[in-house]
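Running this now, will post back.
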Amino acid sequence: MNWVGFVRLMKSIYDKGVPDIEWIEKQGLLAVKIGQTFALRIDFLDEETCTHLSRLYSHNSNIPSETVEELIDMYTQEGWRENFEYIEKMPIASASVGQVHRARLRSGEEVVVKLIKSDFTKNFKKDVDSLKKFLKTAIFLYPKLDKVADPLGILKNIEKYTLDELNLINEIEHGEILKGIRDSNVERYDLSKLKFPKIYRELSNENILVSQFIRGETFDHLLQQKKLDYDNLLELFHIHGFYVFNIGTFHGDIHPGNIILSGEDLYFIDTGAMSSVGEKIQTGLLKFMENLSYYNYEECAKNLNEMAEVEINGKKFDAYREKFLKLYEDFEGKTVSQVSLTRKMMETIKLGVNSGMVFEKGMYPIIKSLMYLDGMVIKCNPTAVLMEDMRRFLGELKK
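Update: finished.
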């Protein structure tokens, strides 16, 4: 995808009517990843467009059965298949870079086999490099674009987590890191409902991954069926909030297809993308969110400034503070369907930047998480007053 393709992609997203999902998929992996990112941008796209673009998380063509067999033979050593009673030819899930098949080991254990669809890496890197050059030219001509939208930062984030996804060893190692964080913090925070599938590392490599089959439903499927209990979604906030605000290392792709509800347990899967954020942002944002949950806007305005790498003061701060209070005058007591938390957060960051603040580039992964979580709440419980429901979790995290 060159810059012409990128411009056409943007036009298809912003034009009236819904984007052509099949056309986007034909433009290659980068186009799909950009489309997936815009599926979260409920801060400036209408809900119908975002919902339609979210199909890119699951609307992916399956590999023909014969090709699956060829890929398995190419990815594994002789004798690898002898570990299995069977591997189903039809996938149970398919995403942009890989697909998943049910299987059973000769030991009787139910597992899933995930395999990378093809060698995307070379073309993906070429497309990213081409788009970077185009964006650098656009920023040179319009410098404010970098401060307000940070397109290069978003592209670099897409590049990093996609390349991480293309090597399944990262999914194994990142899962072990997140599991280790959970295990080392059991005495200070209740993470008992968080689980990770068992990984069969001896049967896995960068292109193929064998893991425990989890009996349950993804949040994505439950949301589509309107069967996701709001309390389970709040529990996800509870768990993910600990990783974001207390640790600063967290699941970098927390979309509803990557969370499985099994009984009362929440399983994190597809941990190929892992994100981190600096201490100034993680602690400052926690203070901001807690004050926001109690509608203490004066403190929120201060918290946002304290989060910035370059703060403002004097008359600049006074002018910003007045605009901040105006921005949140319609927020108190409003449901997620009335006022989007994501939209407010994006407008807040934009206000800070336009007022002279400079933020750490690591902000985007957190905003991305908020977009996922906010979008889930809108589908699950549109009458929820989310910030009030989060008060007890934010209080725990602060302690």
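Residues 121-141 form the longest helix (21 residues). More later if anyone needs it.
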